[in-house]
Fold each of these.
Amino acid sequence: MKINASMVLASASALVGLALASASATTVTFESLLTTPGSFRNGSDVSGQFTSDGVNFPNSYSPLYGGYWSGFAISNRTDTLTPGYTNESSAYPGSGAGGSSAYAVVYGDVTLNFATSINVTGLGASVTNTTYAALSILNGEGPARAFGPGDWFKLTITGYLNMVPTSSVDFYLADYRTGSLLVNDWRYVDFSPLGTVNEIGFALSSTDNHPIYGMNTPGYFAIDNLTAVPEPGALCLVFMSGFGLLVRRR
């Protein structure tokens, strides 16, 4: 059969349509990654990432010092009472968002890197404290002191377009400036104010800091029901120049 330019264009258009369909927004719930109650995956298999609902979430793991990880980890633990580092993997509400089981725990600054610019209106995620951070804020633990008037623990979500900041959204996981707010449930954060971006960065900050070593408040938060754009298949990438979502650590 003779192949002409119009046939090639039609085939390319069809594949573009498939890519667009596969790149439509999806809600990442993390449920498929853990089936055993009370489990925690911190990347000790050294795979370097977790994949849920078509989205890749980076993880860095080292066996040193008894095992050290950063980035994303996956948990369905429910311990809301045990303080300290040994309970780094529990969300303070005692479950995932909406009463689900699995969720992600994030340690360190993380950036979601879109392979093409998109408008994030309607995209967002549910976030909350970990038990480790919450009990440290309430009671103090190790170098961290209990919070008092004027203290806060903040998640800043920043949009970037070609590495230039577009806008940011601040969400206070604890806010003692005018009261004593400590988030103990899942709260939805809307990404819409960020506008058109190709990166979204997540960073934690606190009023409790060491002058040399940085933040004393445990630098963890939990995230669930992330509305994101999954990475399309490799064949579609040829025609779409990488339309989709990759996740990397800044």
Note: The chain is about 15% helix and 40% strand.
Amino acid sequence: MPLRPTILHLSRLRYASHRGGRRGVGATRKLSIAACLLTALYLFMHSTESHAGDRLGEIETEHLFGFTIGSDVGTLGERELEGTTTGRAGKRTGTYRAGEQTISAEFVPMQNLRTEFTAIVAAYDIAGVSGFEDRRQAAIGGVSMDIRYRLLDRATAPFGFAVGVEPHWTRVDEVSGASVRQYGADFVAAFDKEIVPDRIVAAFNLLYQPETSRAKATATWSQDSTSGIAGALMAQLTPGVFVGVEARYLRYYESLGFGDFAGHAGFIGPTLFIRLSPRAWLTAAWSSQIAGKAAGEAGALDLTHFERHQARLLFGLNF
């Protein structure tokens, strides 16, 4: 029986039982409660379905990509838990596998301002890789804080534009897994635009990531930085399901500035985004190094400072 006629039928029964006098008081109360519960259930289902329809067809670039960043920062008061699993594999020799698991809590305290706090766990399986110590370990990696501010909303501007900074402190070197005390920050300028409204969106990033480290074994300090660009193109196949491609070009320096160039790498690969519900989403991305070279080393690709393959899986839940 359809829900609306059921509610109407219960209302009529309630009226009839009320006319029956005292004997109908108990039935009246029970039927009244049932009618209220069914009405509440109907309203909840209707509002959820409506909200789901609105969200599923809407393009939000905050989590749409795997390695690129969109300009959207969430709505005022939004809270979210996010988990990210990143895997990296492939050096020129030996066996190299590294993984990173992060758990983040996100909050939007002001319009256009997004904050995020992250805990990091890292794992390594390295054997026979030239220039690296063999190790098989898992360790608490460190913590980071991401602050992102949207300057232009693409809903009212020709394109979306946001800037962000993510200072971090880590206990292990991201590539080698060696024990260090590392301080750094990731700076990003993120642009995006809907090429076809509610259907195709493109994004572009400018990246700069300086770091300074103190090796625990030798107590020596070192400095390095990575700069580059990233781009993505995503198309919505059905409401809430996007597929596309991401590409990045990164340059590595053995200094905080742009001196002491050490290598460069180009990556490209597919990305999938699925909105599981109005409150949950999933992103999967894979990227392979297709071009590059380490300074002073023979062979194509830079497999000293970067990996041959990188993969990322992200999951988020709003509450």
Note: Residues 3-54 form one domain.
